Amino acid sequence: MSIEAREARQPWILLAPALTAIFLLLIVPLLFIVVYSFWLRSAVGADTPGFFLDNWKAALTDRFYRDILLNTLKISAITTIACALLGYPAAYFIARSQGNKMILLIMLMLPFWISYIIRTMSWINILGVSGALNSVLMSLGIVSEPIQMLYNETTVILGLTHFLLPFMVLNIFVSLDGIDTSLEDAATSLGATRWQAFLQVTLPLSLPGLAAGGLLCFVLGAGTYITPVVLGGPRDAMFANLVFEAIIRQLNWPLGSALSLLLLMVLGVLVAIYNRYLGMAQLAKGLG
Amino acid sequence: MMRTRLNLGWGAIRLYTILVYMFMFLPIAVVVLLSFNANQFGSFPMTGLSTRWFETLWQNETIMRAFRTSIVLGLLTAVISTTLGVLASLALVRYSVPGRNLITTLLIAPILVPEVVLAVALLLFLNFLQIGKSFTLLLMGHVIFTLPFVILVVQARLVSIKRDVEEAALSLGASPRQTFMSVTLPLLMPAVAAGGLFAFTISFDDITGTLFWKPGGIETVPTQIFSMLRNSISPEINALGTVIIALTVGLPLLGLALARRMNKTSGG
Which residues, if any, are the signal sequence (chain A) (predicted)? Predict the structure, then answer.
């Protein structure tokens, strides 16, 4: 074999294990549940293979599923906006501060490393009946009985925001850090106020980072299973809880497949729109 | 020019940022604080400091077993995921591969698919292949879930290793194999370590996929905490939280230190 041919073959040998894993453990399974979603659940024994539209009809028309899907999208949207509002000024501060930039960034990334379940549960210590907030309120005499602040939609959003904020800050920081500060200085020296310079120069240039952070927060938020179980009430179920219910508790795998694919498609549309206008490179930048 | 930034607006942004940091850290700080609480119910008001919850934790066989499971799972995930990830990253960084963008998208696809969907797909497909809920399924799930993160981290590190050194070795008569073993691999080690730590931490933290994949009777640390939360929040959970916080903060900091050292030695 010639050296050129060997050189051309080399990368494929290196890529083969990873690509095989992705194919066998992601792509084929996804195609498999597409097929499975058309099968029919049997009360006893194995599910019936075939081409039945029952599961899709249920997933798409059942009011219960639709309400939970809409509720999931609403919670993710509010969480994403909350992350943007909290994260932008913080990312701006980190990107424009003198000197200890790295330390500030690492500090904000630390919670990102701390176990998701621990961070979610930590809010029970704060907001629970015997939590920090209630004991402060009671010792100040503001309330005489502890109040139940947990287990509602607001605490779900709070927990999700706490979980996803580092993703947002990191992405905004990456794009703000890449903007030449002399652009802002040029705008001010031409008579713009600092605020105008920010609105018309810096903010538009940082939008790709904001969009990447927003996409991540939304997609991760909409797929969340744990937060509504730990911090939500019985009526705060999100779509992933439905999927878990169908697959693990009811063992209705055909319906569970259809529900999973519905979630994948809804979020896939968002990712596709994002990819069309901004490309995946921005996302990779913020994750690496 | 810098002085003008120290105006009222900048002060407001600083204050806002401090509040955001407090929002991030306060709940975690409370977990650590309450884990040393002497109060019998482990709640406020605190009555004194004690390490009794760490002692009960140490004696809790269920939790210790979950710890061992998580560590074995994390280590195996790290080894497999890092091996696959480093090889793939080498191909993407060192060679001009046709269809590079498509391959990259494929390799990071597990991040873009919601974890529940990935969990369902893998569970149903492997069950179809007669591989039911088991440690094997759990391991395969964790590998596929951590692989994209490893690839992104390793790729970022690889770019800074210059090719000149290898070419020098080759031109001085080293065989490609010798060059890889004695030049490339040592330069690669920090990237490998960073990728491995990343995979381990993500695997150790994972809960959503794990809940779908784990067989009955096997618990990892996060699923164990999750099932303990069903009853009520006990000071033992806070103590366990403190141990995990110490671990998960310590490991990445170690990784970061390694990465920094590598950046210095490679001159990048």
Answer: none
